[in-house]
Amino acid sequence: xxxxxxxxxxxxxxxxxxxxxxxxxxxxxxxxxxxxxxxxxxxxxxxxxxxxxxxxxxxxxxxxxxxxxxxxxxxxxxxxxxxxxxxxxxxxxxxxxxxxxxxxxxxxxxxxxxxxxxxxxxxxxxxxxxxxxxxxxxxxxxxxxxxxxxxxxxxxxxxxxxxxxxxxxxxxxxxxxxxxxxxxxxxxxxxxxxxxxxxxxxxxxxxxxxxxxxxxxxxxxxxxxxxxxxxxxxxxxxxxxxxxxxxxxxxxxxxxxxxxxxxxxxxxxxxxxxxxxxxxxxxxxxxxxx
Length: 290
What we know:
alpha/beta; six-stranded mixed sheet; 6 helices; 30% strand
């Protein structure tokens, strides 16, 4: 199979203005299609903005996964023959999630709800994701989704790899204190799982929070293929061979120095990882409403 172009759309977002944000998303989709991108990734909460001070403030801008924005994005995907990963606040009954919609020419192809919620911005008031990590089999490759803080938990990427992911699309809003994520962690997640890792961040300032850009695409060896600036809107388009992520055995010196990070795992030694953690949710929610 020939290489596939993937794109990270590093954009600014306007808090509480889904209409303008949606126009930006559609415009970037069309621009990426002109460069033959088959999947275009947008930042976390790209539709809504992130730095809300309460759930009540954010609720008017939340949508169901099959809401009006997904229909507009699907129309743009039909027009361009591409897929889009877009961050938004998902409404589902009385619960609200930090979510990513995966939209293609035929409409919504999947979604993901952020599992790991930090104590910052709208995440202080949302419900943690309640679904298993899932890999989506698209015409050009197998894609897993993560959102922002998920990158700090190696189990998230490892589960996606074990389920067959060839590319992890991380959509994010990295504030200045998160600079280590693009500097070190994205490459580590790619290397340790032998897959492609595409992190799409935003730029701009929102209620005093400055976002650092540095969207990047990393190959299966942890090497950076492309990285955006810290200040500007950019469209990174990178050509990758999804099949490289399935060639897990790395032969540095035949018969003398070979590595296979799937085969060489020792799961029987990892049991403490799956032990229940202390449930900090009540304290987190209480603090959020003080």
